[in-house]
């Protein structure tokens, strides 16, 4: 990915969904992530000091039901990034912004504010949304073509960030008069931008607008095909776009311990009704995964919302990450059952192996 603000690590790593209870899991284990601010702040500082590349929150407005109602508690992501800007030094702080819920003029100003507070470390993760229960909270009807609105939204944000003189905007979704916005972001021409999607229209949106696509994949060969497809779409738009993978991590001293814990939290202790609700709603309303993934990989949905499992010793996890890098992924997100107790083993065990293999400077 060649955004000027992005550092030199050839394979980026970022922490995903620490702002929400359960993280990305749907489990009932007592150590599940409670997403309390002080613990999140400690995790963000730990990731920052260790040289991880980004901190990426999930955007959620309600929980997934079941026994735990996971993600009911989640911090709003723009104010979340602003808070973390004050206590971190190097790490990129994404805000995950819902196009239909957040007006682009507001989003442009909020992102520029975070970019100043963090001295150029704001990131924008555009999500066009899929969950009708959340749309209902805002009085919004489910959207027919989510990316048509996304394109207008992003054009408005980009024009404000470019510093264009006051402009009118007339589109299908926005009719705006005399739009301006200062301060401009520190990053030029705009903050690092990704969008989270799986479907062909989502890939096209990234190909035309973003620095990278954040996506799900079922296995590395399929991931390789997705990367080729996205690169082709970007090339047709005369652009280069990175592809970020999404993974959940169980790192333990032995392979058997890691697999036993994965089985424990994601099978024996899955939040059954929560997983059913999540899978049912996603299969019906969102194109974020391959159709067969929901039933084939139920454990992955309890384990990490359908992301790819990295389960084993630090060496095994590092080798799997190197396979992702060699397949062409620009990096990955990671998530844990308990970020604070589990991130240290990842940092101490996995990062040195990636550094030795030449994929990371830190
Ligand atoms: C890796 C990944 C992360 C996502 N994160 C969020 C999120 O935080 N909040 C949200 O409402 N939707 C999220 N989405 C859903 C997308 O924004 C999009 O609405 C959904 O994938 C359906 O669009 P698609 O068919 O183009 O993939 C995510 C999707 C993917 C693949």
Morphology call: globular
Strand order of the largest sheet: 1-2-3-4-7-8-9-11
> Which series of helices and strands comes N to C?
EHEHEHEHHEEEHEHEHHHHEHEH
CATH class: Alpha Beta
CATH architectural group: Alpha-Beta Barrel
> N-to-C terminal Cα separation, in Å?
18 Å
Brief overview, please?
The chain has 362 residues and is an alpha/beta fold. It is built from 13 helices and 11 strands.
Report on this model:
This protein is 43% helix and 16% strand. With 362 residues, it is α/β, with parallel strands linked by helices. Strands 1-2-3-4-7-8-9-11 form an eight-stranded parallel beta barrel, surrounded by nine helices. Strands 5-6 form a two-stranded antiparallel sheet. Helix 6 (200-209) links the parallel strand 7 and strand 8 (212-214). Helix 1 packs parallel to helix 13 (339-356), helix 3 crosses helix 5 (146-162) and helix 5 runs parallel beside helix 6. The model has no long low-confidence stretch (mean pLDDT 95). The chain binds flavin mononucleotide. Residues 58-59, 96, 127-131, 196-199, 201-202, 214-216, 246, 286-288 line the site of flavin mononucleotide (FMN).
Q: What features would you highlight for this structure?
A:
43% helix, binds flavin mononucleotide, globular, 11 strands, two-stranded antiparallel ribbon, alpha/beta, 13 helices, 362 residues, TIM Barrel, single chain
Write the layout of secondary structure elements.
Blueprint: E1 12-16, H1 37-49, E2 54-56, H2 77-85, E3 92-98, H3 104-117, E4 122-127, H4 132-137, H5 146-162, E5 167-170, E6 175-179, E7 192-196, H6 200-209, E8 212-214, H7 220-236, E9 242-251, H8 255-268, H9 272-285, H10 293-296, H11 298-304, E10 308-312, H12 314-327, E11 331-334, H13 339-356
Parallel strand pairs: 1-2, 1-11, 2-3, 3-4, 4-7, 7-8, 8-9, 9-10, 9-11
Antiparallel strand pairs: 5-6
Helix pairs in contact: 1-13, 2-3, 3-5, 5-6, 6-7, 8-11, 12-13
Bound molecules: flavin mononucleotide.
